[in-house]
Amino acid sequence: MANHFRTIIIDDDRSDVEELAKKLSQYPQIRGAGYYYNAVDGLAAVLRDKPDVVFLDIEMPGMTGLEFMERLDAKSRHHCHIVVYTAFVNHAVESFRHKALDVLLKPIDKADLDKVMTHLIIEANKSKRPTERVGDGMLEEEKHLLMYMNKSDFQVVKLCDICLFLYEEKTKRWQTYARDGNKVYSFTLKHNVYSKHLLALSPSLVQVHKKYIVNVAYLMMLKDNECVFFAPFKSIKGVMVSENFKKKLVEKFYSI
Questions:
Q1: What count of other Cβ atoms lies within 10 Å of the Cβ of residue 146?
Q2: How high is the pLDDT of residue 66?
Q3: Closest CA to 57 of 20, 109, 5
Q4: Could you say which of 143, 149, 154, 217 would form a disulfide bridge with 159 (CB–CB 3.0 to 4.6 Å)?
Q5: Alpha-carbon gap, residue 219 to 249, rounded angstroms
Q6: Distances (CA, A) of 146 to 24, 141, 164, 239
Q7: What pLDDT, on a 0 to 100 scale, did the predictor assign at position 118?
Q8: Which phi and psi angles does 110 have, rounded to 5°?
Q9: How many Å apart are CA 233 and CA 253, to the nearest integer?
């Protein structure tokens, strides 16, 4: 089974963040990236959320990427892989001295990013940590659900394959969107299934609107309050985040 990396991007250049996030979305190993536009906020997030990998710019105001690595090493016992991505080749040697796993040069070349991802997977396999467990003790990636469509028919689905629940006003039933490999399929749940039942399934599920419950592991970004999902759910459009739920979404997203 492929490794999944909880990821944070730290860079003061928003266009660079968007470019990297777009490229990372092509890799199924990347599970939901958080974005920070300065190293101070990024350091607080890393200490709080303990991600698996950080893509870190070097030239930033307030605190440089090199200073970030020094402070992280001094403050945290949690180990995360640092991938420095920079436009300046001369930062490479100093980055490795600060225990960076790899260096990725701007503008990002797809072949170079492939090599970085391969390096990450190799290192993760050397020091594999247990996957987070859900309430009944099963690994979340292994947990299968029987989701009933009526009194007798049901759909078997992996919990980690569910991206979205959509409430249909006309039928008053929840529609489920899940993946089967790279394909997306949907089915409608039986009556008398409420949002509280769905949210109790996993800590990764959060309600973003009275009509939508999303799995933040597939959430790539918010754009004009609309959810943009990682592949294979990129084609799902119109999932809007209401102001009443936005704060809870941000808190949940960065806790993953």
A1: 8
A2: 92
A3: 20
A4: 143
A5: 10
A6: 32, 15, 16, 25
A7: 84
A8: -60, -40
A9: 17
Grouping H, G, I as helix, E, B as strand and the rest as coil, residue 15 is helix
Q: What is the pLDDT of residue 9?
A: 95
Q: Which pLDDT score is estimated for 121?
A: 79
Task: Return the structure tokens found at 52.
Answer: 């698996």
For residue 135, what pLDDT is reported?
Answer: 41
Q: Please, how many CA atoms are within 13 Å of residue 71, restricted to the half-sphere of its CB?
A: 14
Distances (CA, A) of 47 to 67, 112, 141, 251: 15, 28, 25, 15
Query: In the structure encoding, which two tokens stand for residue 136, read together?
Result: 């009944």
The list of the chain residues with pLDDT below 50 reads 1-2, 128-139, 141, 254-256
pLDDT (0 to 100) of residue 238 = 96
- Rounded CA separation 102/245 (Å): 37
Whole-number pLDDT of residue 88: 84
CA distance linking residue 97 with residue 21, whole number of Å = 26
